[in-house]
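Thanks for the sequence, V.! I ran WD repeat-containing protein 54 beta-propeller domain-containing protein right away. Repeating your input here for the record:
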Amino acid sequence: QVICRAIGNNNTPAPENDARFIAYIVQAAYVNLPVRNLLVLACTKSIQIYEPDGTTHLHIHMLDKTSPNRTESSIYSRGITGFGQNSLCVGNHQGEILLFSIPPKGTNIFLKETIPGHQHGITSLVSNSELLISSDTNGTILIWDNRTMLQKNVIEPMDDSGITSTSIWKNCIAASYANGMIRFFDAGNAQISGSITAHARCINAIDCNEEGLVASVSDDCYVRIWKLSGDAENLQISHECNYHIENSQLVGVKFLHLLRSDIAVSTYDSNEIIVLRA
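Predicted structure:
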């Protein structure tokens, strides 16, 4: 069990009952880098990094307050991914990507660079061996070269619905939207490859595995599984199955194995994780 604590005055742990310093976890992710594995918590007010079993707290990065020229009023971090040998990226409410350098051992984790790009709060970060994909609450997707951290392309908003989650399969970017849509884009040319009306309400999370299965969860209480085949230039999308979890707002989904269809699902206001096999 990991207890997320903010830092109060004089860099000491904040009192548990002081609302000014309460930090809520927005997202949690395991990041597996060649040099090290980490548990990363994207929180309100901070980013916190632990050893994978949660026993050792390695680093805390406090977030800056919202700049006057930004549109987001709350302070949060969201979007976690790792790439290269030792690079960890986390997005924030100001539309920035925070790039951390991770040592092979010890606690000498430091912020290497703050990369601006989005005009709205970041909602998701995903990466592969070449690219970093970032999305925001306005529905914009930016495609970066993760070796140089230079922007390669931009996918403009398709409508007035924000992006809630992204994943990547081969050269295909999958993006879920608050209006229940999932859209697929070619990572090479930023063109749309396909779209599906996946859910009746807001999609809160999606995930892809290497076999081309896409899992999506929504406020409509459904887990849905989709199958991708071909590639981004000739994408085929088929619906595989549904699973209904009654009276549950589904907020998280993750494939447990890259090549198998076991998935974990989390629900709002519940401490249980539901494991399904598609």
